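Action item from last week, closing it out:
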Amino acid sequence: MHKKEILEIRKQFTPANCAITRICGCYVNHEKEKICQSKQAFLSMPEEEAFKYFDIFKHTLSGTVGKNMINMEFTLDSEMPGGAQEFLMKLRESELKDDMLVEEFYDKIIEHYRYGENYYIDDKAQAMPIPNSAANVAIATGYIDKAFATKELYEFGMYLREHPLWQAQIQQINVTQAKELELVPRVGDHIIFLGKPGNYDNKFNRLKTFYKQGLNEIGWNKYSRISLEFNNQIICTKKEK
């Protein structure tokens, strides 16, 4: 793939040219267990959320081939019937509507995914080795370095510690490439999107109100994503039926 082809692909990441019909995701913990999955029609997303994905897609295709991007070559075996190329073509042709194919795709990625360092952050914001006994703390995954872990993640962890309701509800924290926070709750089959770290009182107060006045009435599994990123509003994405 050369520069001209990359530019042509990037041009499609706009509402007018978009050919993406569906987007799927799977959250996995450090033991390679699937915690939460999502599936939704891409063009039915709220505009702000869709544009965030467009930015992520464009950023993925930024840089130069051979440095930031790598050409993946299929081996002869992978081009044979039943090989990787045939599987990926089936996945594309299914438009992500075949749940068994999507599950198989997740399993293939999880099987070969290599996790980075595993460590705890203690109450003095210091990294410490994983102890032999299990601890009842939220798992943090994603784009995390030690600096982010010992500052932003530590501050968020201390906030959860000071608020038992949310400490009990949040089981996984995912850090996106843009250093934004996504949360996997224990109750409710949805993702909570906080956006950039900070302003936690405002965000969680809105979430608590929404839980009481919204989800208690319409059901806890109606939405795939609840965004608290913007002040004075909550943006929800309905699940596909």
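Closing note: The first strand starts at residue 22 and ends at 28.
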